[in-house]
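Predict the structure of TetR/AcrR family transcriptional regulator.
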Amino acid sequence: MTEEDKKPDRRVQRSREALRCALIALMKKKSFGAISITEIVETANYNRGTFYAHYDGKEALLDDIIAELIRELLQSFRAPYEGTDVFLISELSANSVMIFDHIYANASLYTVLLKSEVLPKVKEAMLLALKRILVEELQPVDDGRGLNQELLVVYAIHALLGLVFYWIENDFHYSPAYMQEQLVKIINTDPSSARSTVKRPQH
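Done. Here is the predicted structure for TetR/AcrR family transcriptional regulator.
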Protein backbone atom coordinates (compact mmCIF):
# COMPACT_ATOMS: atom_id res chain seq x y z
CA MET A 1 0.00 0.00 0.00
CA THR A 2 1.39 3.42 -0.99
CA GLU A 3 1.38 6.57 1.12
CA GLU A 4 -1.40 7.92 -1.08
CA ASP A 5 -3.54 4.89 -0.28
CA LYS A 6 -3.06 5.48 3.45
CA LYS A 7 -4.08 9.15 3.44
CA PRO A 8 -7.88 8.62 3.38
CA ASP A 9 -7.59 6.31 6.40
CA ARG A 10 -5.60 8.92 8.29
CA ARG A 11 -8.18 11.59 7.44
CA VAL A 12 -10.97 9.36 8.69
CA GLN A 13 -9.03 8.68 11.87
CA ARG A 14 -8.36 12.38 12.42
CA SER A 15 -11.98 13.39 11.90
CA ARG A 16 -13.29 10.66 14.18
CA GLU A 17 -10.77 11.58 16.87
CA ALA A 18 -11.78 15.24 16.61
CA LEU A 19 -15.46 14.35 16.95
CA ARG A 20 -14.73 12.09 19.94
CA CYS A 21 -12.72 14.84 21.64
CA ALA A 22 -15.48 17.35 20.95
CA LEU A 23 -18.14 15.18 22.58
CA ILE A 24 -15.94 14.53 25.62
CA ALA A 25 -15.21 18.26 25.97
CA LEU A 26 -18.93 19.05 25.84
CA MET A 27 -19.74 16.33 28.38
CA LYS A 28 -17.48 18.12 30.86
CA LYS A 29 -19.87 21.09 30.69
CA LYS A 30 -23.33 19.57 30.24
CA SER A 31 -25.28 16.31 30.22
CA PHE A 32 -25.04 13.96 27.26
CA GLY A 33 -28.76 14.31 26.61
CA ALA A 34 -28.45 18.08 26.27
CA ILE A 35 -25.68 17.96 23.67
CA SER A 36 -26.65 18.49 20.02
CA ILE A 37 -24.96 17.33 16.82
CA THR A 38 -24.50 20.98 15.89
CA GLU A 39 -22.54 21.63 19.08
CA ILE A 40 -20.35 18.60 18.46
CA VAL A 41 -19.42 19.55 14.89
CA GLU A 42 -18.86 23.22 15.80
CA THR A 43 -16.57 22.20 18.67
CA ALA A 44 -14.69 19.80 16.38
CA ASN A 45 -14.56 22.41 13.57
CA TYR A 46 -16.25 20.07 11.10
CA ASN A 47 -19.60 20.10 9.34
CA ARG A 48 -22.68 17.91 9.80
CA GLY A 49 -21.91 16.07 6.57
CA THR A 50 -18.60 14.88 7.99
CA PHE A 51 -20.29 13.78 11.19
CA TYR A 52 -22.94 11.70 9.40
CA ALA A 53 -20.30 10.19 7.14
CA HIS A 54 -18.99 8.45 10.25
CA TYR A 55 -21.88 8.22 12.73
CA ASP A 56 -25.66 7.84 12.63
CA GLY A 57 -26.03 10.01 15.71
CA LYS A 58 -24.35 11.10 18.92
CA GLU A 59 -25.18 7.72 20.52
CA ALA A 60 -23.05 5.99 17.87
CA LEU A 61 -20.24 8.45 18.58
CA LEU A 62 -20.49 7.67 22.29
CA ASP A 63 -20.44 3.94 21.50
CA ASP A 64 -17.25 4.49 19.50
CA ILE A 65 -15.61 6.25 22.46
CA ILE A 66 -16.62 3.48 24.85
CA ALA A 67 -15.55 0.73 22.42
CA GLU A 68 -12.06 2.24 22.06
CA LEU A 69 -11.77 2.61 25.82
CA ILE A 70 -12.85 -1.02 26.35
CA ARG A 71 -10.33 -2.21 23.75
CA GLU A 72 -7.51 -0.51 25.66
CA LEU A 73 -8.91 -1.75 28.99
CA LEU A 74 -8.85 -5.36 27.79
CA GLN A 75 -5.33 -4.94 26.43
CA SER A 76 -4.17 -3.76 29.85
CA PHE A 77 -6.10 -6.56 31.60
CA ARG A 78 -4.42 -9.22 29.44
CA ALA A 79 -0.90 -7.90 30.15
CA PRO A 80 -0.07 -10.24 33.09
CA TYR A 81 -0.89 -13.45 31.20
CA GLU A 82 -0.47 -12.60 27.53
CA GLY A 83 2.01 -14.96 25.91
CA THR A 84 1.83 -17.59 28.64
CA ASP A 85 0.21 -21.02 28.62
CA VAL A 86 -0.33 -21.28 32.36
CA PHE A 87 -1.19 -18.29 34.53
CA LEU A 88 -0.91 -18.70 38.30
CA ILE A 89 -2.72 -15.95 40.19
CA SER A 90 -0.49 -16.66 43.20
CA GLU A 91 2.53 -15.62 41.11
CA LEU A 92 0.97 -12.37 39.91
CA SER A 93 3.40 -9.49 40.40
CA ALA A 94 2.31 -5.90 40.99
CA ASN A 95 4.42 -4.52 38.15
CA SER A 96 2.69 -6.84 35.65
CA VAL A 97 -0.73 -5.37 36.46
CA MET A 98 -1.40 -2.69 33.87
CA ILE A 99 -5.10 -1.94 34.33
CA PHE A 100 -4.53 0.94 36.76
CA ASP A 101 -1.95 2.48 34.42
CA HIS A 102 -4.58 2.39 31.68
CA ILE A 103 -7.22 3.98 33.90
CA TYR A 104 -4.83 6.70 35.06
CA ALA A 105 -3.68 7.46 31.51
CA ASN A 106 -7.34 8.05 30.63
CA ALA A 107 -8.24 9.67 33.95
CA SER A 108 -9.99 12.67 32.41
CA LEU A 109 -12.22 10.52 30.21
CA TYR A 110 -13.09 8.04 32.96
CA THR A 111 -13.93 10.93 35.30
CA VAL A 112 -16.25 12.51 32.74
CA LEU A 113 -18.03 9.21 32.08
CA LEU A 114 -18.31 8.44 35.79
CA LYS A 115 -20.05 11.74 36.46
CA SER A 116 -22.43 11.49 33.50
CA GLU A 117 -25.77 9.80 32.98
CA VAL A 118 -24.11 7.31 30.60
CA LEU A 119 -22.25 5.63 33.49
CA PRO A 120 -24.57 2.57 33.57
CA LYS A 121 -23.83 2.01 29.88
CA VAL A 122 -20.08 2.23 30.51
CA LYS A 123 -20.22 -0.11 33.51
CA GLU A 124 -22.25 -2.68 31.57
CA ALA A 125 -19.80 -2.57 28.64
CA MET A 126 -16.83 -3.05 30.99
CA LEU A 127 -18.54 -5.87 32.87
CA LEU A 128 -19.54 -7.79 29.75
CA ALA A 129 -16.12 -7.35 28.10
CA LEU A 130 -14.20 -8.54 31.16
CA LYS A 131 -16.58 -11.43 31.72
CA ARG A 132 -16.16 -12.53 28.12
CA ILE A 133 -12.38 -12.68 28.18
CA LEU A 134 -12.33 -14.33 31.59
CA VAL A 135 -14.61 -17.07 30.29
CA GLU A 136 -12.94 -17.40 26.89
CA GLU A 137 -9.26 -16.96 27.79
CA LEU A 138 -8.78 -18.01 31.41
CA GLN A 139 -9.85 -21.52 32.35
CA PRO A 140 -9.82 -21.84 36.15
CA VAL A 141 -8.45 -25.03 37.65
CA ASP A 142 -11.02 -27.06 39.59
CA ASP A 143 -9.72 -27.26 43.16
CA GLY A 144 -12.41 -29.69 44.29
CA ARG A 145 -14.26 -27.19 46.46
CA GLY A 146 -17.33 -27.19 44.22
CA LEU A 147 -17.11 -23.52 43.33
CA ASN A 148 -19.57 -22.32 40.70
CA GLN A 149 -17.18 -20.89 38.09
CA GLU A 150 -19.72 -18.48 36.63
CA LEU A 151 -20.43 -16.99 40.06
CA LEU A 152 -16.70 -16.83 40.76
CA VAL A 153 -16.11 -14.89 37.53
CA VAL A 154 -18.95 -12.45 38.25
CA TYR A 155 -17.67 -11.93 41.82
CA ALA A 156 -14.10 -11.30 40.63
CA ILE A 157 -15.16 -8.78 37.98
CA HIS A 158 -17.44 -6.83 40.31
CA ALA A 159 -14.71 -6.76 42.95
CA LEU A 160 -12.14 -5.43 40.46
CA LEU A 161 -14.50 -2.83 38.99
CA GLY A 162 -15.59 -1.79 42.47
CA LEU A 163 -11.96 -1.07 43.30
CA VAL A 164 -11.45 0.79 40.03
CA PHE A 165 -14.51 3.00 40.39
CA TYR A 166 -13.76 3.72 44.05
CA TRP A 167 -10.32 4.93 42.94
CA ILE A 168 -11.81 7.17 40.25
CA GLU A 169 -14.50 8.54 42.58
CA ASN A 170 -11.78 9.52 45.05
CA ASP A 171 -9.88 11.50 42.41
CA PHE A 172 -7.03 8.99 42.07
CA HIS A 173 -5.89 9.57 45.63
CA TYR A 174 -3.43 6.68 45.35
CA SER A 175 -0.85 6.14 42.64
CA PRO A 176 -1.35 3.42 39.98
CA ALA A 177 1.65 1.55 41.43
CA TYR A 178 0.10 1.58 44.91
CA MET A 179 -3.25 0.33 43.55
CA GLN A 180 -1.50 -2.46 41.67
CA GLU A 181 0.39 -3.48 44.78
CA GLN A 182 -2.77 -3.46 46.90
CA LEU A 183 -4.72 -5.47 44.31
CA VAL A 184 -2.11 -8.23 44.38
CA LYS A 185 -2.17 -8.24 48.19
CA ILE A 186 -5.98 -8.43 48.21
CA ILE A 187 -5.98 -11.29 45.71
CA ASN A 188 -3.46 -13.24 47.77
CA THR A 189 -5.15 -12.66 51.10
CA ASP A 190 -6.26 -15.91 52.72
CA PRO A 191 -9.86 -15.28 53.88
CA SER A 192 -9.44 -17.83 56.68
CA SER A 193 -6.62 -15.77 58.18
CA ALA A 194 -8.43 -12.43 58.00
CA ARG A 195 -9.55 -11.01 61.34
CA SER A 196 -11.92 -8.17 62.20
CA THR A 197 -12.65 -6.36 65.41
CA VAL A 198 -16.33 -6.09 66.23
CA LYS A 199 -17.26 -2.53 67.16
CA ARG A 200 -20.09 -2.55 69.69
CA PRO A 201 -22.23 0.52 70.43
CA GLN A 202 -21.28 2.49 73.51
CA HIS A 203 -23.92 2.71 76.25
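The two ends are 80 Å apart (CA to CA).
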